[in-house]
Amino acid sequence: MSENYKFNQNRKCEYFPCHNVKDEENFNCLFCFCPLYMLKDKCGGNFTYVNNIKDCSKCTIPHSKGAYEYIMSKMDEVIRIGSERE
Length: 86
Prior knowledge:
Number of helices: 2
Radius of gyration: 14 Å
Helix content: 10-25%
Oligomer: single chain
Order of helices and strands: EEHH
Strand content: 5-15%
Shape: globular
């Protein structure tokens, strides 16, 4: 069974690769904008806060091998937060 939907790469993107990585061949562009950003400190990534803004520039989790599985493992929490009413 094909699992090509778990990996996408766009070498024509003017930002490719958007993170400093050693292995460009396996750089995954599928989650160009990380859907876990809203999880704040529960995303599991390597981030910092700069002027009270979450800076994910040192995080490569969404772009690494296994990114699809990791992101999907956190989607229940994203959906729960997104469904909350203020």
